[in-house]
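go over my protein:
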Amino acid sequence: MGKYFGTDGFRGKANETLTAIHAFRVGRFLGKYFSRGKRDRARILVGKDTRLSSYMFEYSLAAGATASGADVYLLHVTTTPSVSFLTRTEGFDCGVMISASHNPYTDNGIKLFNANGEKLEEHVLSRVEEFIGGGNLPLATGESIGRTVDFVAGRNRYLAYLLTLSRASFRGMRVGLDCANGSAWQISKAVFDALGAKVFAIGVEPNGTNINENCGSTHIDALRALVMERNLDVGFAYDGDADRCIAVDERGDVVDGDGILYLSARAMKGRGELERDGIVATVMSNSGLDASLAREGITVTRCDVGDKFVHDELVSSGYMLGGEQSGHVIFRKVSATGDGILTSLKVMETMIESKCPLSCLVEGFKRLPQYTKSVKVADKTAVMKDETVRKCLETAKERLVGGRIFLRASGTEPVIRILAESENDLLCRELLADMERAILHVGEAL
């Protein structure tokens, strides 16, 4: 991770750690970098979520890019995976998504994609960071100045693409959708309506400040209540930019990214679509996933947290399915990034083809007791290097025989994440509490 860009873009408090000036300078660099050596001006695609500050960042970045001579195509409110898809299929040089994903509305972020719809390469991000920190580029003049183009039609092309991916009609299915008052609030319902489902949607009244507020994939209780009260067949919750999906089965039980990986891997293997009989999961995924899929003849390869790392491992391993417990799931044959709406369509397809409710599809997934905690800190690096914290972690690992415990600094938030996992449920919780106290104590001393 660099000074500005973490595991999922440049993220921070709007106009505090991430300002309109930052966005302008990112646009200035992208506009000039992707115009170099080209006879035609660079074409940059920009989308945003529903945060109040997204308009400010969208126009700031567009101003920077056009001032450098690029044309900027505005998708307006859309999903992160739609930006990835359209960048790849419509011949754009670069894609930009203005979003802070599952974070509160006071945060925002800038996610960058290359021409293949993949996260922008590290060596280019390094040059972006250098320019943000201080650098000069010539301004375009005269007829070389770029322009903005309304490209709202691109959203319809993405929606049409999603419809082509479904091999089943959803007619007769009662489906709940929690759109987190974010990017999915119009697209997801339109897709499910078109496929014949009876849709019950919440989180579809964005006002600029309520994105992810007690709704969406990180606040699943609202969707659970909807599924139970309306007697629905299934529910799906997305995050602010709709690259995550968490499901709720007909009984109101949560099926997270691990559960979705489990049922999808089995279904893909049954159809002969699971290349090399393996998938990719991150270090945060429950160890029970490995054991449960091993019984099906499927191997699990682990990688660092972040859908960029999942995608990179998928490419290097040749696998077609990977994801995170948080709900980022990549179906590599049809997408280069996590796509919450696509994921929900794949789960629906598996339910309909198998003629099984969602609860039945995850019955064979046996989890180990796992506890996680996110501890807010002022200086993630200092806490992770602190000797007291390191000794506490070493002691915990010695005591947790047959299990695992680890810490990681979030790449998108000012928090340290703790994971403890073991057959010994009581010890697991005790050690997690010890680690939390050690981190908080160090944080207070800094």
Observations:
- The chain has three domains: 5-152, 166-361, 370-445.
- The two ends are 22 Å apart (CA to CA).
- DSSP finds 15 helices and 19 strands in the chain.
